[in-house]
Amino acid sequence: MQCAYACRSTEHSIARRSFLGGMLAGAGGVLGGAFGGFARPAAAQQLASTQKRVLVVYLAGGVSQLESWDPKPQTDTGGPFRAIPTSVPGIHISELLPYTAQQMHHLSIVRSVNTNENDHGKGSYIMHTGRREEPAQPYPHLGSVAAKYLSPEDAALPGYIHITPGGNGVSASEAAFLGPRYGAVTLGNGEPPRNTKRAESLTEAADLARNDLRRRLNDRFVARRRTAETEAYSYSYEQALKLVAQRELFDVTREGDAELARYGTHDFGRHCLLARRLLEHGVTFVKVSHSNYDTHNENFDFHIEQLGEFDRPFATLVGDLAERGMLESTLIVVMSEFGRTPQINHLYGRDHWGTAWSVVLGGCGIQPGAVIGKTNENGTAVADREVNGGHLFHTYLKAVGLDPHEEYVIGGRPIAMADPSADVIQELLI
Amino acid sequence: MSQGGDPWRGCVSLLGIVVCLSFVSPLATGAEPPLHERIDEQIAAHHAGAMAERASDAELLRRLYLDLTGRIPTTSAARAFLDDPSPNKREQLIDRLLASPAYARHMQRTFDVLLMERRADEHVPAAEWQEYLRSSFATNKPYDQLVREILSADGLDPAQRPAAKFYLDRAGETNIVVRDVSRIFLGMDLQCAQCHDHPLVDDYKQDYFYGLSAYLTRSFIFTGQDQPATIAEKAEGEVKFKSAFLDEPERQTGPRVLETTSLVEPAFAEGKSYVIAPAEGVRPQPRFSRRAFLATDLTSPENRQFSRTIVNRLWARMMGRGLIEPLHFDHSDNPPSHPELLDLLATEFTAGGFDLKALLRELARSQTYQRSSEWPADLDAQACPPESFAVANLKPLSPEQLAASTLEATGMSEAIRAEFEQQLRGDPRLGEVLAADEERRTLREEMSEQRLNAQLLGQLGQFVALFGNLPGERQDATEATVHQALYFSHDGGMASWLTPLGQNLAARAVSLSDPALACDEIVLSVLSRRSTTDEQQEFAHLLAAQGESGRATAVSEFIWALLASNEFRFNH
Question: What is the ipTM score, two decimals?
Answer without folding.
Answer: 0.89
